[in-house]
Amino acid sequence: MRIEVLGAYGGESPGCRMTCLRINDRIALDAGSLSSALPIEEQVGIHSILITHSHMDHTTSLPFFTENVFGKIDRAIDVYTSAATSYAMRRHLFNNDTWPDFTRLPNHLLPVVRFHDLEEGVPAILDGVSFTPIEVSHTIPTFGFVIEHHGRAVVWSSDTGPTQRLWEVANRTPGLAAVCLETSFDNAYQEIADLSLHLTPRTLERELEKLDKKVPVLLHHLKPPCAERIREEVRALGNPDVDFLEQGRVYEF
Ligand SMILES: [Zn+2]
Ligand SMILES: [Zn+2]
Questions:
Q1: What is the pTM of this model?
Q2: How far is the CA of 100 from the centre of ligand 1 (A)?
């Protein structure tokens, strides 16, 4: 499968775009930077969007993306996420106060945005790619995903603190090619990371002890002010399997 990293950060500053992947051209995973990373002609090609959770760094481009493709596509944009996340996005984003309710526009029978609820452990097959949602440990309901295509699998988590189930699933997933995991803060922000359920290089090192397989671990969701220190502290761990997801790069798994 082809995974293009449109946004690799957990915040925004020049050169740092927020969490967003494009998978096999037509699927997006999280929508932190869909409208800023892609030209409009390419945004029009995105049919399905999976959302891990409702925090803004994962959803904020969806209203602008919707406006960019509105009138250029003859189908709904299908958004796949948990019932809790779709509820939060309808209530706080597409609520006619923050942004027009595109789940009922131009009319409720043929809306521009259509939400589909995902359940933990039940795969969604989109364009032949399987996405199995796994609950991770964040401050609000949040899914990681096992992404599988042609016998190759990538375990992906955006925001999570120390967690368990993701690792159990990773350890029994056949054809595991990589694990992508967040590291949001450097070690000086340990207390904030613990309270907000994110990882630092220190807690990342403990998490990696739960992984039985030797596969590349690619880090992302760095908070821009912490990015340089995180890179230094991760390098100091001396783990040759750990690297950073590179924004703008296309990975083939
Ligand atoms: Zn985030
Ligand atoms: Zn979050």
A1: 0.97
A2: 24
